[in-house]
Amino acid sequence: MAVHQVLIGGEWRESKSTGTFRAENPRTKEPSADEFPISSWSECDEVLKQAAAAAVELRRLPAEVLARFLERYAERIEGCKQELVEIAHTETALPKAPRLADVELPRTTGQLRQAAAAARSASWSLPTIDTAAGIRSMLGPLGPICVFGPNNFPFAFGSISGGDFAAAIAAGNPVIAKANSSHPGTTRRFAQEANQAAGECELPSGTVQLIYRTSHEDGERLVGDPRVGGTGYTGSRHAGLRLKEAADRAGKPIYLELSSVNPVVILPGALSERGEELAQQFSSSCLMGTGQFCTNPGLVLLLAGTETTTFVERISAQFESAPVGTLLSKSVEQNLTRGVRGLIDAGAEVLVGNSAGGGQGYSFANTLLSASARQFLRHNVELQAEAFGNAALIVIAENVDELTAVIDHLEGNLTGCVYSATQGTDDAIYEKVAFHLRPKVGRLLNDKMPTGVAVSAAMNHGGPFPATGHPGFTAVGIPASLRRFAMLQCYDGVRSHRLPPVLRDKNPNGTIWRFIDGAWSKADVG
């Protein structure tokens, strides 16, 4: 089979590649028949040239055009649902149903439609008007956005279909999508539909472009190029930090989602009330999708006691009896093996698992480890390293002070959960624990596991480093996610007819929320 083409300037072209690669079927370990190009710098340069030209044209287009594109794209995705599910299943081994067909694909189209609604309303841009000073401001597009998608969500976080893509487009920016090497065929199929929708809506030809892979050096050069407005990246910490260094040198914003162990604290009263139920909840959450969620609960914090001993025994039995799932790729299996070995070398004791294999294709035994709080405090860097996959570490503290000391030594995480008694017997401990945990996590949960991430305006899918590169932004939750890909634009003394419509005295459609002289309002000025 010929090498697949790249999408540049609205056209599918033969690649000016430096080599090729193939994805693998994780369940069979067989390479795909499809071959994909590794783009050269000259090809990246052409993509940037097209995106820069599109960015200029997009600034002149009404938001309604972007909204129509996002909605039309969602419709086209739904029209080829079965084909997308089949390709993604082959490339990732993720279940066709319910995971891909019934969960991730509807989430993807839902995000696109929410982004369309945000673009149309314009309230996301936070129009601010100070009539006394004659100053007005709003958020406007940054310019071309590079999107690097992860391996674990080929639809909802995909580089040309997911939340970063939707947010960047809705904010008025063209997107340069870099496919994840684990599912290039899936990304290509999305790109075909995105390109068709862009043509139907008469968007500039460089609005949506796709390349599959670059060298590390060219990837770093790409995110730091003067023509780039910013970057959205979800993936490994090592690769993400290299991109961040390159973007930082050039003064370019880059929004990273890197690693997170998502601590779950279960207090004594909760264990006494419903220990068996909580063991089942945790095991299900941790092993769901073979543990390959960015919000997977990989660290459990407990206070020593007989209920804790029973709880750990229950989890161990459930991990041992649960089927072993397929990992996304050979590299995920290798990294999980290394991650578990690192925890053991730092003093963690294996309760269950710790062996490659056990499932179909690339796999690793469901693995549960334990350590005392004292061990954790002595080796806190090593014992909170992410082991991405179906593995978790239990840390047992002797008292509340030791428990909060462990929390104080945690890096930043996407989520943190606290389970407490329903009758209030844990309230005093909860207050201490939550106070210490709150600054360590982007989303604090009570009495629920963290693996579900609702696409809600109030959602924060972010957190302190290394969960993300900046604690003030979210990758999920519209309209807030749009603001990552925007710049603050101020107009000082600019005549009314020269202002963007959203900043003029008359509210353009009567529905936009604007911050006028210190108060939010939908009214006209004056």
Key terms for this structure?
about 525 residues, globular, about 20% strand, Aldehyde Dehydrogenase, Chain A, domain 1
Write up what this structure looks like.
The chain has 526 residues and is an alpha/beta fold. The protein folds into three domains: 6-20 and 32-258 and 474-482, Aldehyde Dehydrogenase, Chain A, domain 1 (3-Layer(aba) Sandwich); 263-446, Aldehyde Dehydrogenase, Chain A, domain 2, CATH 3.40.309; 489-521, no CATH class. The chain is 38% helix and 19% strand. The chain contains 15 helices and 23 strands. The protein has helices at 41-58, 63-79, 81-92, 96-121, 163-170, 184-200, 216-223, 237-250, 268-287, 306-321, 330-345, 373-378, 380-383, 400-408, 427-437, and strands spanning 6-8, 11-13, 17-21, 24-25, 30-31, 36-39, 128-130, 135-141, 145-148, 175-178, 208-211, 230-234, 254-257, 263-266, 299-303, 349-352, 367-372, 391-397, 413-419, 441-446, 486-492, 514-516, 519-521. A hairpin with a 2-residue loop joins strand 22 and strand 23. Helix 4 packs parallel to helix 5 (163-170) and helix 7 crosses helix 8 (237-250). The protein is globular, with a radius of gyration of 24 Å. It starts with 5 loop residues before the first strand and ends in a 5-residue tail after the last strand. The relative contact order is 0.13. The model has no long low-confidence stretch (mean pLDDT 97).
Low-confidence stretches: none
- How many structural units, i.e. domains? 3
Tell me the β content. 15-25%
Overall shape: it is globular
Q: Helix amount, in percent?
A: 25-40%
- The name CATH uses for the topology of the largest domain is Aldehyde Dehydrogenase, Chain A, domain 1
The biggest beta sheet reads:
7 strands, mixed
Label the structural class: alpha/beta
Instruction: Give the radius of gyration.
Output: 24 Å
Q: Any idea what the CATH architecture of the largest domain is?
A: 3-Layer(aba) Sandwich
Strand neighbour order, sheet with most strands: 16-17-18-15-14-19-20
Mean pLDDT figure? 97
Number of strands: 23
For the termini, the CA-CA separation is: 66 Å
User: Helix count, per DSSP?
Assistant: 15
**Fourth-tier CATH superfamily name of the largest domain:** Aldehyde Dehydrogenase, Chain A, domain 1
